Amino acid sequence: MPFVDPTGRAIINGLQGGFPLTHRPFRDASARLGLSEGELIEGVGDLLEAGQLSRFGPLWNAELLGGGVCLAAIAVPPERFDEVSEQVNAHPEVAHNYERSHALNMWFVVAAEKPGRIDEVIGEIERETGLAVYAMPKTREFFVGFRVEV
Amino acid sequence: MLDAIDRRLIAATQAGLPLAWAPYRALADEIGVDEACVIARLKALLANGAIRRIGAIPNHYALGFTANGMSVWDVADEAVAGIGAKVGALDFVTHCYERPRHLPLWPYNLFAMVHGRSRGEVGDKVAELAALIGSAARAHDVLFSTRILKKTGLRIAA
User: Fold this and answer.
1) Closest CA to A75 of A137, A21, A140, A129
2) What is the pTM of this model?
3) Whose CB among A30, A90, A135, B23 lies 3.0–4.6 Å from A40's, allowing a Cys bridge?
4) B128 within domain boundaries
5) Mutate: best of A42, A148, A150, partner B, most B CBs <10 A
6) How far apart are the two ends of chain B, measured CA to CA in Å?
7) Tens digits of per-residue pLDDT, B86-119?
8) Parent domain of A34
9) Contact residues on chain A for B87, CB-CB shorter than 8 A
């Protein structure tokens, strides 16, 4: 388990949402975390520097901003895995790509500013690889209350 | 709809907020509006869901949550709404979606992503999910990620 100091722990466990929209938000958030304004600002900077936070700020919802996002999967023959991985990753619209333990062994996310572009990218990947791409767009999203606890 | 100021705000905050005593004023100076405008815009974007939340966005891997299991469930279509709501409410589920089946290869229509410090911990949590969903699930599986092949931030046009 990577080391997180008490200040970092207070920030991660207590500030994954609800950062105030006020003139002095770090001051206004710091009291309930048991920190001073300066300690909070410095603590966030330390967590960012350590890579334990990927960002501090608004988490934007890409789809509500007009973009399109779609999960897709391919059953890649094992001997072609690296080659197909390169072909898929070469598309700038492919944001994430994971190898997973299943006959459908390659899972990636296609994200595009124009939702119509998603189907085009999937079609291009099918033509380039000669493999079927299974599109798995979300048809419903359920609210999640997830918070990482450290 | 987003206007030019919203788009400037998105571009200016994609890497995060300035770490300053008055971060919204710093942002306002950067995009050429006043602080009250930035705060009002962010409040509206948070209220309509364009911003999911504002705060610390943890890097799961760097914090030791190195195992992630995509649990997938074959649930009757008419039961998905109720079960999805219950599953999403659990504090170890990071994403929960209904998606289309691709029969016969892929019979699963409910996806719940589970993060943990080890595969064992993820497996225990999936067992909790199985107990919660009970006989409403006709089948389920857990797909562990065995390799990250690509990971870039989601870029949003501004």
Assistant:
1) A129
2) 0.80
3) A30
4) yes
5) A148
6) 13
7) 999 888 898 899 999 999 999 999 999 998 899 9
8) 6-49
9) 142
